[in-house]
Amino acid sequence: MNWLGVLPFLVFALLFLLLPTADLMIGAFQDADGHFTLANLRGLFEANVLEAYWISFKISATSAIGGGVLGSLLAWAVVMGKLPAWIRPTLMTFSGVASNFAGVPLAFAFLATLGRMGLVTILLKSLFGVNLYATGFSILSFVGLALTYLYFQIPLMVLIVTPALDGLKKEWREASDCLGGTPLQYWRYVALPVLWPSMAGAMLLLFANAFGAVATAYALTGSSLNIVPILLYAQIRGDVLHNPNLGYAMALGMIVITGLANLGYMLLRSRSERRSA
């Protein structure tokens, strides 16, 4: 009877996580006729596939680091910055919504804002004479996609890091002040050693979050940017690149990379919890 409450979750995880993952793992080692083969794994080392993984890695790392730094500063401002009390619940509510706002709506929002005829693009040109696209910027480029990812990466970082900042005890700061420590010394020798596992783990989670994103990237850039989720989609959907089993192998590679990132996050989170205890 004690398992009845968690049974719906177990069924959901089995149907939509475990069984699909097992199916693509099996498909990664099969050819079109269902025979065992390692050709799909060898296909991962083709030039275009390796390039897609490298571009995906760079975009994910860029958005994870940028989102981690900016999100940490936002969290620090609301927790320790002595701002008005209403700002924190407002920011946390917005972060909870924005961290889950992705896919086609997010892509459309950025196209309407920073596209060639977007609101910000037109305002910059009409009010300040700045032609954003004359500088080489494009919302369909590497920079544009990384900037779009920051919209949900920064709020997610805020949600993860805020509890860690709340865990810094006032007694530690008071002890540092009583011993003659400067604010810089407090952050260097007390606060950051406690916070860095949480911050590093959160950035790994942001990396995994960006590496697996497909709807936003495809809706925003189409096939103009060679990243793994878009190339995988092209292999499976049945166009010129149709090779579902190679797509399964690429998905398996993504699972390994995001799995390692999530494993690092869980290890660092447990370390952070031990330090804060």
What does this structure look like?
By secondary structure, this protein is mainly alpha-helical. The protein has helices at 7-27, 39-43, 47-80, 87-98, 104-114, 119-128, 142-166, 170-178, 183-211, 215-221, 228-237, 244-276. Helix 8 (170-178) runs antiparallel to helix 9 (183-211).
User: How would a crystallographer describe the biggest sheet?
Assistant: none
Q: Quote the beta fraction.
A: under 5%
- What are the segments in which pLDDT stays under 50 over at least 5 consecutive residues? none
Q: Please, how many helices?
A: 12
Strand-and-helix sequence, N→C?
HHHHHHHHHHHH
On the 0 to 100 scale, the average pLDDT is 89
**Distance linking N and C termini:** 34 Å
**Helix content range:** over 70%
Coarse shape: globular
What's the alpha carbon Rg, rounded to whole Å?
Answer: 22 Å
Number of strands: 0
Structural class of the helix and strand makeup? Answer: mainly alpha
Topology, element by element:
Elements lengths: L6 H21 L11 H5 L3 H34 L6 H12 L5 H11 L4 H10 L13 H25 L3 H9 L4 H29 L3 H7 L6 H10 L6 H33 L1
Features:
single chain, 277 residues, mainly alpha, 12 helices, 74% helix
Brief overview, please?
α3 crosses α7 (142-166) and α3 crosses α9. By secondary structure, this protein is mainly alpha-helical. The mean pLDDT is 89.
